[in-house]
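Dear colleague,

Thank you for sharing your sequence with our group. We've completed the structure prediction you requested, and as agreed, I am returning the results in plain text so they can be pasted directly into your records. Please verify that the sequence below matches your submission; if there's any discrepancy, let me know and we will rerun it promptly.
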Amino acid sequence: MSFDSKAFLATLTELPGVYRMLDAGSVVLYVGKAKNLKKRVSSYFRDNLPSPRIAHMVSQIASIETTSTRTEAEALLLENNLIKSLSPRYNILFRDDKSYPYIVLTRGDFPRLGFYRGNPDRKADYFGPYPSSWAVRDSIHLLQKMFRLRTCEDTVFANRSRPCLLYQIKRCSGPCVEYISTEDYARDVQLASMFLLGKQQEVTKRLTESMEAAAGRLAFEQAAVYRDQIQSLHQVQEKQFVSSSKGEDVDVIVALREAGQLCVNLAMVRGGRHLGDRPLFPSNAGDSSARDAAAAFIHQHYALHPAPARLLVAPMPDAEEKAEVESALAELAGRPVPIQDGRSLLHKAWVDMAQQNARLAILARNQATAHQEQRLAALQEALQLPEAIARIECFDISHTQGEATVASCVVYQDNGMKKADYRRFNIRDIQPGDDYAAMRQAVTRRYGSIAAGEGRAPDLILIDGGKGQVSSAYAALADLGLAHLPMLGVAKGEERKPGLETLIFPEGREPLQLPPEHPALHLIQEVRDEAHRFAITGHRAQRGKARKTSKLESLPGVGPARRKALVNRFGGLPGVLVASVEQLAEVPGISRDLAEKIYSALH
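Please find the predicted structure tokens below.
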């Protein structure tokens, strides 16, 4: 049955809220927010829709669900949560990156200057966010040079008996050995905070006054320190070829559609300093316009991250969208957050820079895509495969003398590593150190669902190993009825040198050794190395967890109460290990049968 829009709209509220459009199979097509639900949803059922993409979406609507909220800000947050959890087909999706880095200044007598990634709290002062870790570390380096604040961890700071190298190269004032007083250090912390807040002129003024006062009392060494700080500050200001003397906090958001790509570039200006930018390429964009992408980014980004004083946006949202977003941002931030285009010379320069960097990002992405496609074509030709390769899965096994064996499966798809599809398998019930059995188990577990008709099969399977691992993996595939899937072993060359790998085939075909410069080999190495990294990371975590866990915690039928009783009776694991079955059975709550099971598990 077709969707009766008139009947639905007649019942719709005019409150703010979120709407979800569903198809006949109850799959969510689109999630949106509205200041006025009735007005916004009605706009989808008029004669002239803004694009064929929207018209196609509306033709699939079988039902619409709504959730009213008290405010626009609540609607914005709910919309973002639903988009992230449901990934609707017609929403422009941006990667949920909650880990923008900050500069942190801790509290106490001698605060530490450092790099921070996570959710800021009230235990310290945070400055940012910054577009990249490079921008944070560059700023920290400048602050060390100008104000000589410590960057060492508290445990190191508390146990120093002499200053470190940073003191020798004049990047720290040596508070760990009391080479600077608490009061003087606090003054430097205050100046650093003012600098990060964009008050460079006030910082220069204070340093100049301190320098003149020191010179007046003939403290020329101290005056020279202030002079060096002033010179460093001037050098920083000279480097900021596009900077603001007003100490502005601005985000520049530019959306650009060129050369078949849609890019949204976010540039951050904090305290008047341009900190660099970050290009983002959304998914589910379809034929969406740059204006649509910019609006979608604003909705999703500022539902998670604090908004600066103003946004410079190009292209600007339409008047209605702009008013709604400004209202929601003002409610979230507790202050107005105007959305503007670049009108002044400085703001226009920032927008122009962001647009140029978006073009460069699109160019680099297209070049990288072309390069990856060339490598895939070279791999198909080298392996003599009848069909193009779009998805590669690679397995590796990692353990330490049989302990905590972990298998990894990484995925290469869409011209890059697809981390969302990575899998790890904790290998159990095999002889420790048996890599062949581990590989067979990992392949069986990975492709059991594929054999049952679920999920997508790879176009090529890589096995990090030689004939034994390849034979085990192939046997597992044959048992599943998937022996037709192309498989390739990557055996390390002499002295494990990259470029000397031998490619092993399961069906008896002669091994293949590609030239070190062959693009197909470079692709194989890249995927293989990622599988190795992912396996080792999982193995180390599993091994660390196992070594932190007492054997008492894995005993069959022994919960917290019985474990406590065993510790009270025998003093810990060593005492339990030397206890006989009869002694174990004497512990309250442990029967003879359970005592035998415990003894058997420990010996």
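Summary note from our side: The radius of gyration is 31 Å.

Kind regards,
the structure core
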